[in-house]
Design brief:
By secondary structure, this protein is of the alpha/beta class. It has one domain: P-loop containing nucleotide triphosphate hydrolases (Rossmann fold). Helix content is 34%, strand content 28%. The strands form 2 sheets. Strands 6-7-8-3-9-10 form a 6-stranded mixed sheet, sandwiched between helices. Strands 2-1-4-5 form a 4-stranded antiparallel sheet. The radius of gyration is 18 Å and the shape is globular. The two termini are 17 Å apart.
Length: 222
């Protein structure tokens, strides 16, 4: 499903270069639940941004569902991103001026889906995540755990092939964090591929593979 070959990310520093990622070789199969771990500054979030096609400034080869991402232009990468990938971040990134229901509608608005069908999908998702009672509230009216639940719902509403989660429980207390991880586990069991970045050993154990990054190098491929 996903294959990275000799992927590197670097910046010019003086007469040389500073490498954020070095010679990354990585394969992700459909249905995997992968955890990326490592110390701060190891390159975890950068790797996730490359996989999610948010970052196009790198070298090497990247294949996503047989698409050669390294050969695609910005628009083509953005189309792949919107069609197949859902994101969950530590900062919830909900739009403050929109209600819960309106936030959920955003990923659907990128696709050729009729308004009536979008409303039905939003209604089904609100019910699935047990947040029907929150649909008309704004993010500022929700707790941190509720906001992250909405963020996860928004990430999966368009049925992505892959969910990329960058420290998704970082701002939550342990009970809320466990609720989110149990939700990821159920989504994975339903067939969604998940790649998460976390420092938490307990949350890492939810996955079936752990990849360790240190100073930009993969030290353990899982």
């Amino acid at each position: 499903m996903i294959e990275l070959r000799n992927v590197e990310k670097s910046y010019p520093v003086g007469a040389g270069r500073y490498y954020v990622l070095r010679r990354i070789e990585m394969q992700v199969h459909e249905g995997d639940f992968i955890t990326i771990m490592g110390p701060s500054g190891a390159g975890k979030s950068t790797l996730l941004s490359i996989i999610g096609m948010l970052d196009g400034d790198w070298s090497g080869e990247y294949y996503f569902l047989d698409h050669p991402v390294h050969k695609l232009n910005v628009k083509q990468r953005a189309e792949l991103n919107k069609k197949y990938i859902g994101f969950v971040f530590q900062q919830y990134h909900l739009l403050e001026g929109l209600t819960v229901a309106e936030n959920l509608d955003i990923p659907l608005s990128y696709r050729n889906i009729k308004a009536a069908d979008r409303q039905a999908i939003v209604a089904d998702t609100l019910d699935r995540f047990h947040i029907v009672g929150k649909k008309d509230l704004f993010p500022s009216q929700l707790s941190g755990g509720q906001q992250q639940l909405v963020a996860v719902a928004r990430a999966v509403i368009a049925s992505p092939k892959v969910i990329l989660a960058d420290e998704p429980t970082g701002n939550l207390h342990s009970t809320q964090g466990k609720e989110i991880m149990e939700l990821f586990k159920r989504l994975n069991e339903e067939g969604t591929t998940i790649i998460q970045v976390t420092h938490n050993e307990n949350w890492a154990a939810y996955g079936n593979r752990i990849i360790h990054l240190v100073d930009g190098w993969i030290t353990s491929p899982g």
